[in-house]
């Protein structure tokens, strides 16, 4: 269900990146600080309102020709009437009228969207499109019994009443405990298993045997595994401090030792060691308050070692972003700034706040950020290990980013989402990390 909006924004991103990547000199390079305003404009130029996407869904599901919003509203009222769920009409009509910029993530909103899709007889592919490209959430969290059954019913063209009957019956099945406490069944695997159920009896039999897998506290397990893998590679370690200090002594002439190997350090430390050229700081005179010498402290390595806990999430994100950032200052629409990775947000996910459907956006944004940094930092440190052609490198990045998201059951990078578009456009520049930091108002 690719509409004009999607085609337009996709072609614009492709046009810009192809122009950059096919030019050895990157004349139109969005990573150049002179082009920062253009990058900001391109990231924010396309920002389809939720109400507009909802109207497209309704028009696509109907043979009617609507002349105005009032006709669409009357049509929706008529379609919702047989379901008669409390507050559905009020909320959905509010969405249509643009009273809500973007509905909050959560089971109540998700179920309301599903009921609307059932009422409109929306095909499965269009349900997926609406969740992924308008609501910006996973289309079916099949870890929830309700959503697993909704998925089966949309796939087999059953109505809402049929879905509710199945939910009632399956909910009544005896609760189960896993036979193997070490077993991990990923949500994507559940969806594949549901694809093999072509009749109600096959679906019920599946739940009789596997009901133990439908627990919300098991959601997002693959995503959290990938997230921790990224952190293991990117975060600094306190043992990195000794390596960095030794290298600083060597580079400032205080030691004649050979520089130690840095590949065991976190990527944030490796990047700074590769960029930094520490030197003996010249005396700036005597500080009248402390009675001590004042020295230059602007080197990247000094900044990293001075007062930072290398293994902290705060230090890691400060290195990725270039400095501490404030969410309200990020040049993104307010809804896309929501869940922008912060030390507090990432810490909450790692401590177990990752299990519910409402955390889909937060986890996905963290995965996109960390995969972007890992890929382009490794490229920066060892470009010879990557393809020679800039377009091939970009395509490799895109492929790896999408493979990571797909393996976690998340939708691939979508240029119609301004958060995703930021990373795609920065990746099309000659210096992706610097382009990203420039966008955030920082420099390396």
Structural class: mainly alpha
Query: Helical proportion?
Result: 55-70%
**Beta strand %:** under 5%
Give a quick account of the main beta sheet: strands, pairing sense, barrel closure: 2 strands, antiparallel
End-to-end separation: 41 Å
Silhouette: globular
Task: Specify the number of helices.
Answer: 22
Number of strands: 2
Overall mean pLDDT stands at 83
Radius of gyration: 26 Å
SSE order, one letter for each helix or strand? HHHHHHHHHHHHHHEEHHHHHHHH
Oligomer: single chain
Q: Which strand order do you get reading across the main beta sheet?
A: 1-2
State the low-pLDDT regions, or none: 24-28, 278-285, 289-297
Task: Please give a handful of descriptors for the protein shown.
two-stranded antiparallel ribbon, 2% strand, globular
Short account of what is shown:
The protein is an all-alpha fold. It has helices at 4-21, 36-45, 50-60, 69-80, 88-96, 107-119, 124-135, 145-155, 160-171, 187-194, 200-210, 221-234, 240-251, 267-275, 300-305, 313-321, 334-337, 343-350, 360-381, 390-407, 418-427, 432-439, and strands at residues 283-286, 293-295.
